[in-house]
Design goal:
It contains one helix and no strands. The chain is mostly helical.
Length: about 60
C-alpha cells in the first residue's frame, strides 16, 4: 500500500514538472516572439524615418 502511494506521488511530481517545463517553454517562446516583434517594428520605424528624411531632403 505504501509503495502504491509512493508511486502515485512520484508520478504526480513528474507530471507537475513536465507541465511546469511546458509552461516555462511557452513563456519563453512568447517572450522571444514579443522581443522579436518589437525589434522588427523598431527597425522598420527607423527605416521609415530615414526614408522620410531622404524624401524631405533632411539628410
Amino acid at each position: 500500500r505504501l509503495q502504491s502511494i509512493n508511486n502515485q506521488l512520484l508520478e504526480a511530481c513528474i507530471e507537475y514538472q513536465n507541465r511546469a517545463e511546458t509552461r516555462q517553454e511557452r513563456f519563453l517562446e512568447a517572450l522571444f516572439c514579443g522581443i522579436t516583434r518589437f525589434a522588427y517594428q523598431w527597425v522598420e520605424g527607423e527605416e521609415d524615418l530615414e526614408f522620410e528624411e531622404k524624401v524631405r531632403g533632411d539628410s
